[in-house]
Amino acid sequence: MDNPTIARLLDETAALLEIDAGDPFRIRSYRRAAEAVLQQTIQLGPLAAKDADSKSLLSIPGIGKGMAANIRDLVATGSFPLREELLRRYPTTILELLRLPGMGPKTVALVYAALGITEIDALEKAARQGDLLSLPRMGQKFTDKLLKGIEDYRKNSARFRIDVARSYAEQICDFIATVPGVETITPAGSLRRGRETVGDLDLLVTGPACEPDVVAAVSDHVASLPLIAKLLAKGPNKVSFNLHNNLQVDVRLLPPASYGAALQYFTGSKMHNVALRQRAMKRGLTLNEYALLRLEDHLVLGSRTEAEIYHALGLEFIPPELRENSGEIEAAEAHTLPKLIERSEVRGDLHMHTTESDGHNSIREMAEAAIERGLEYIAITDHSKNLAMTNGMDDVRTLAHADRIRAVSAELAEEFAAGRGPQWARYERLLHGHPSSRPLSRHPREAQPQEPTTPFRILAGVEVDILLDGTLDLSDQTLSSLDIVVASVHTGFNQPTEEITERMLRAVQNPHLHILGHPTGRKLLEREPYKVQLPPVLEACARAGVAVEHNAQPERADLNDLHLRLALQLGCKIAVNTDAHSTGQLDHMAGGIVQLRRAWLKASDVLNTLPVERLLSYLSRTAAAAATSE
């Protein structure tokens, strides 16, 4: 059982307790525990299984003795006594109601008590019949929003966020890799192309163990995977199954001779493959999942690698992220494919939070975690006061927080000058071959460890709210004193198109703004974007020199790849940021880079590939130009 599953079950128990009008303290303890589990960088399942006295679990803040026992029960049996007791009172279908907009635990409890509703079909029927209108706080506006939410939920329920799919893919690959003779395991399909959501998983396995005469043992091993909820099929070449969340996984066992052709075929996309097959036919060739063949004599022109297939078709190798039949084949033929941005080219992260607002770590902890990941600078951008639920800052707190940020940055610089501190410690580990806490292979810039030459920098910033009228939530005097200002919409999502567009256009005109944060406000599979007319906003950003953000939080991925391409065409600079609320979330940068690659972006298109001094110079010129144009 993985950490997201443990966290989900604990959070569901908190929701069941709230539906049951349970003790608020107990409810909070389950929610805190769920959050704590999600923040862990090691898997708690194996830990709990062998942690007889719960010492390791008890060392996690937010996990007490009772909660540690619950986690151990979850890992051992899939449940624990309180959860079982609550599920005897309420059917599991009632939990699905919580995934709908406006249906928090108290509202679910209300419709259950008043109408006995425990599942979505019954709730939809009640909404259409007007049965909800007599209940408190459930007028026509609420009912209309609920019906739209039910429609969206059904549309999206068969899709899974890429981070969820990637997590399961990694666990399954690790399990398969234990079989002797398995050499390569590669996710294909939407996951390999970097789509924000996927419908299923395709995993391609090859090596001597996948040859026809020995493949049965691999097939049996895959079918014994503990994560499997339902085995759909098991044969000599493919094992198909569903996970507990209904995500379907197809594991295909391939001989090395056809691995490249199969990888190209199962990566897709469908329209990219159709275009390739048509290109092959025009050349007297045929392309399928086994090989690229010449029709006249069935000579194999490519099968072991994708590169040889593309080259045999007269094309440059096309990166998986671009395979959407959106001009990549023509560019590959003309040798004009861009050199796509790499994770190693990102030098900084310009949007993150600390304990000053709603983050979980201190300024120094976020800085040290960024150093460990090979970054050269970060910006601390805690929330402003309008977002009260996040403990947002007023002007006085913002300025005091900026002083603390600069003090920590100076402290790190002093340590660096003295030949000590986290930068030197990381360099020593890499130099002497000691593994760092973050695998170096994820950050290829330091394949050969380089002695650090400049101190790590922390920029003092803020994520300031864009208020309903388009003004910013802090004074211009405060904003002008900061190194970087990110402005975002966090309220008023339902404003009409004209109003929210004008609101954002006014915000962009502020001369102290540097980055427009998560510009469409969407949350994948949860919340639709607000109804902003994006082209005029992007045009205004390009004129003002305001960068637009790709927020790499996997639930946001905002701007999406198509909007990023539009922003690039309109002349916008892009900033890719993690919006991290904990040290572990800094790893979201890798997923953000995938989305930038899907948008055809190069390193030169991205603001935070600049060295810090050039970044600060760019930001100061932008502010000066904006002030002059006022």
Can you walk me through this structure?
With 630 residues, this protein is of the alpha/beta class. It has three domains: 3-156, Orthogonal Bundle (DNA polymerase, domain 1), CATH 1.10.150.110; 161-334, 2-Layer Sandwich (Beta Polymerase, domain 2), CATH 3.30.460.10; 343-417 and 459-629, TIM Barrel, CATH 3.20.20. Helices cover 45% and strands 12% of the residues. The protein has 26 helices and 17 strands. The strands form four sheets. A seven-stranded parallel sheet has the order 11-12-13-14-15-16-17. The chain has a five-stranded mixed sheet with strand order 2-4-7-6-5, sandwiched between helices. Strands 8-9-10 form a three-stranded antiparallel sheet. It starts with a helix and ends with a helix. The model is unreliable at 436-446 (pLDDT under 50).
Major sheet summary line: 7 strands, parallel
Task: Specify the CATH architecture of the largest domain.
Answer: Alpha-Beta Barrel
- Compute the CA-based radius of gyration: 26 Å
Backbone structural class: alpha/beta
Structurally, how many domains make up the residues? 3
Report strand %.
5-15%
Percent of residues in helices comes to: 40-55%
The outline comes out as globular
Classified by CATH, the class of the largest domain is: Alpha Beta
